[in-house]
Design brief:
By secondary structure, this protein is α/β, with parallel strands linked by helices. The protein contains twelve helices and 16 strands. It has a seven-stranded parallel β-sheet with strand order 5-6-7-8-9-10-11. The protein has a four-stranded antiparallel β-sheet with strand order 3-2-1-16, with helices on both faces. InterPro entries: Enolase-like_C_sf (IPR036849), Enolase-like_N (IPR029017), Enolase_C-like (IPR029065), Mandelate_racemase_C (IPR013342), Mandelate_racemase_N_dom (IPR013341), OSBS/NAAAR (IPR010197).
């Protein structure tokens, strides 16, 4: 099989509620949508959900656009493949740029599943027909505002609440939420905002008293030894996110006992194929896994729902309904959560129709490349 045409759409969609982490606040998102069309006119869609700024990771929308247009599009159009895993070998020499690769991998899996007439979840080996969803809440101006957000999401039926924390916004707001809701599944995420010195480790260990499901990524991505020291000090499981980009990172996490939970983000790990392998490796070693999100539009969100149907995803994942983030999504119908649960689509591919007219209205950049356009291009 060959891909006949690839279109890239950089799209901006406003958030219904601005979101603040330890590094920045955002009120809209710019993501790149990857549209792959084969010779028979079958189309697959993927999403490059990289941040606009280099705070979560070194990739940005601009770097992803450059890598996609200069390297990934030509290689994908020149490749002969039967399964998505084979297409990925076309760009095996390109180091890093996992977000950019993830969008192309997602489009390939969607295209392959549509051609095979099967749901993406089943193509990946998923078993669940429904996925439990959690929500992630940003840093709010006041504790009262945070409590109002928690109440709103619990009323919507979500099974887990994750709170963003940072130095100066940690013990007090988390205590307030736990006091208001003694029994909810609650965890915190620092996005690497803390140093891993002994004083900070002792301070964070005080979170044990709040009966959290996990503390996610308190230290810098490469600081696996710091996370291992914290895990030795705490009974609360440490969850790694930014630290685990490759399967080799996961093996290091296992060897050091640097965490007991893994946040598998499809975008961070370079796409569905590696994310599925991480699920298999982690669960084989007794590590709990869940699917994290990057505020994906509906295409990436549907991909997350599909992989969350795999048996090892036992914790609620970041697959909340589209309305949690967007007044209007890029898919029809939007992802919907009922009592905190999302139904896994049973129709071919990602299971949703893409709203191409809405995409065109909100597009910032566009590239349309056919197979003939790259014939003879340098490798």
């Amino acid at each position: 099989m060959r891909i006949a045409r690839i279109r890239l759409h950089e799209v901006r969609v406003p958030l219904v509620h601005s979101f603040q982490t330890s590094s920045h606040r955002k009120s809209s998102l710019d993501h790149i949508l990857v549209e792959m069309v084969d010779a028979d006119g079958v189309t697959g869609w993927g999403e490059i959900a990289s941040p606009a700024d280099p705070y979560y990771c070194s990739e940005t929308t601009d770097t992803a656009w450059l890598v996609a247009t200069r390297y990934l599009v030509p290689r994908a159009l020149e490749a002969e493949w039967e399964r998505p895993e084979e297409l990925e070998t076309a760009w095996a020499r390109i180091r890093g740029h996992e977000f950019a690769k993830a969008g192309f991998v997602g489009a390939a899996w969607d295209l392959w599943a549509r051609r095979a007439g099967m749901p993406l979840a089943r193509a990946l080996g998923g078993e669940r027909t429904q996925v439990r969803a959690g929500v992630s809440l940003g840093i709010e101006p006041t504790i009262d505002a945070l409590l109002a957000q928690v109440e709103h999401q619990l009323a919507a039926g979500y099974h887990r609440v994750k709170l963003k924390i940072a130095p100066g916004w940690d013990l007090e707001p988390v205590r307030a939420v736990r006091a208001a809701h003694p029994d909810i599944d609650l965890h915190v995420d620092a996005n690497g905002a803390y140093p891993s010195d002994d004083e900070t480790i002792a301070y964070l260990a005080r979170l044990d008293e709040l009966r959290l499901t996990m503390i996610e990524q308190p230290f810098a991505p490469r600081d696996l030894t710091g996370h291992a020291r914290l895990q030795q000090r705490m009974s609360t499981p440490v969850c790694l996110d930014e630290s685990v980009v490759t399967l080799d990172d996961l093996r290091t996490m296992l060897a050091l006992d640097a965490g007991r939970v893994l946040n598998i983000k499809v975008s961070r790990m370079g796409g569905l194929t590696v994310a599925r392998a991480a699920h298999d490796l982690a669960t084989a070693h007794g590590i709990l896994v869940w699917c994290g999100g990057m505020h994906e539009f509906g295409i990436g969100r549907a991909t997350n729902v599909a992989i969350s149907s795999l048996p090892g995803f036992s914790l609620p994942s970041d697959v909340s309904g589209s309305d949690k983030y967007y007044a209007r999504d890029v898919i029809v119908p939007p992802v919907v959560a009922h009592d905190g649960t999302v139904t896994v689509p049973s129709t071919p591919g990602i299971g949703y129709e893409v709203d191409t007219a809405w995409i065109a209205e909100n597009r910032l950049r566009f590239l349309d490349t056919a197979e003939a356009d790259v014939a003879g291009a340098p490798a």
